[in-house]
Design a protein that fits this description.
This protein has helices at 12-19, 23-29, 37-47, 64-67, 79-85, 123-136, 152-157, 172-181, 219-224, 241-253, and strands spanning 31-35, 50-56, 74-77, 94-99, 114-118, 140-144, 166-169, 185-195, 206-211, 226-229. It is an alpha/beta fold and 257 residues long. Helix 6 packs parallel to helix 10 (241-253).
Length: 257
């Protein structure tokens, strides 16, 4: 059964959904937004738990195949309401409110590589890195003073990768101590490091550290890890953080993907 169409921007459910574009509201409500047909379909097929599903009332028939999987949670609204919730330039007419899973104790999968992101701030970079991490098997991601992984732009840029990785917030000291205790080699991306293509990449008990877009990784990580780099022509000093992370993850995983 489809509920009455909501037309007001001041409707409490609409105001709450719109607030989820803000980090503090996401944490307060324990929910985040998934915007767009492809990602919403992935969610309702089991990737995450939907709390509410806002659908443009003029497109109910178009999205019927999604709506059928989400009975009792449908909130039909006008296009104006959808546009007010979405941060997309051209909203696709369907937005899910998704329940955040409680932060679990850090227990990465044994013998699986760990990705450590040190102060990554650009949401597009973070989403792209999460997307590649999911594709390459870096399923445990540690965030240190990094952008919110549940912001709409990160979720969108991750192309669903956010649903298939375990994300943990830890301090620098905590993850360094963990890697030392578990005999995990930290490979720290730095332009002064060893050429990654000459490094012994047969070691799989590793954690890859990617640093801030402008400042790179912290001195503490450098002091406690092995520096590795991507070779490049002399006229280029560095690569975009997401590009570097992607190339390094694929290089380290080799044929094991």
């Amino acid at each position: 059964m489809i509920n009455e169409i909501i037309t007001s921007l001041d409707n409490p459910s609409v105001k709450e959904a719109r607030s989820l574009n803000d980090k503090k509201a996401r944490r307060f409500h324990g929910k985040f937004l998934v915007d767009g047909e492809k990602l919403v379909h992935e969610v309702v097929c089991g990737a995450a738990e939907v709390d509410k599903l806002f659908v443009d009332s003029a497109r109910l028939e178009e999205f019927d195949y999604i709506i059928k999987k989400c009975e009792g949670k449908i909130v039909p609204v006008t296009k104006k309401v959808i546009d007010s919730i979405s941060e997309n330039v051209t909203p696709q007419g369907i937005i899910a409110e998704v329940i955040m899973q409680p932060t679990a104790e850090f227990k990465p999968v044994s013998n699986q590589p760990i990705l450590i992101l040190d102060r990554i701030q650009d949401p597009g970079n973070l989403g792209t890195i999460i997307r590649t991490a999911s594709a390459t098997g870096f399923s445990s991601i540690v965030l240190i003073d990094t952008a919110d992984p549940f912001s709409p732009k990160v979720v969108r840029s991750s192309s669903g990768g956010i649903f298939y990785t375990d994300i943990f917030r830890m301090s620098e000291a905590e993850i360094i101590d963990y890697c030392r205790a578990k005999n995990i080699e930290m490979l720290v991306a730095d332009m002064c490091g060893e050429n990654i293509f000459k490094h012994n990449n047969s070691i799989k008990n590793i954690a890859l550290v990617i640093g801030n877009e402008g400042q790179g990784v912290s001195e503490n990580f450098k002091a406690n890890g092995t520096l590795v780099s991507l070779p490049m022509k002399s006229q280029m000093e560095s690569l975009n953080a997401a590009v570097s992370a992607s190339v390094l993850m694929y290089t380290l995983m080799g044929n094991s993907i």
